[in-house]
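Notebook entry, structure prediction.
Reason for the run: the old model in the group folder had no record of what sequence produced it. Starting over properly, with the input documented here first.
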Amino acid sequence: MTATTVETVGLSQGTWNFDAAHSEVGFSVRHAGISKVRGKFTDVEASLTLGATLADSAVTATIQAASFDSGDANRDGHVKGADFFDVETYPTLSFATTSVSGDEGDFELTGELTIRGISKAVTFKGEFNGVAVDPFGATRAGFEAKTVISRKEFGLTWNAALEAGGVLVSDKVTITLDVAFVKAA
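New structure, fully documented this time:
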């Protein structure tokens, strides 16, 4: 499986730049055990380097923690504060691949995710959405991927007990990527 060449999936070797205007790095977490809160990070920089095979490829990303946006200013302020991301002390989250594998449609992207200065190995399971040349001559590639992490493993332990039992914020957080990259000239 790792011998799949990037040309097999319609891509070309080299550097691909993150297209922030056409991408979303999002999340969802269960709230009060009854609903999900969704949001995104709005300040993301990433780079995709494609080698001859998927196994020779790599992704790096840096996210500004203060760009956390769940659509509620009060909640966002709390999450950016010391109880969660502590953006003053830990201004960025990051990801760097350690391995890439897959075939023409599906892939696994394994790497080190760092949140609050704590790094853990995570694996994103994803899908290649294709490649296209836009009306301006830029070659674009799209990908979707998802993983589930334990926020406690990254030092995000704040919670509040509910009167009926359970806690306010679940431990499991789903991270979703719907991203585009543009081939560097």
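Summary: The CA atoms of residues 128 and 143 lie 5 Å apart.
The old model has been moved to the deprecated folder.
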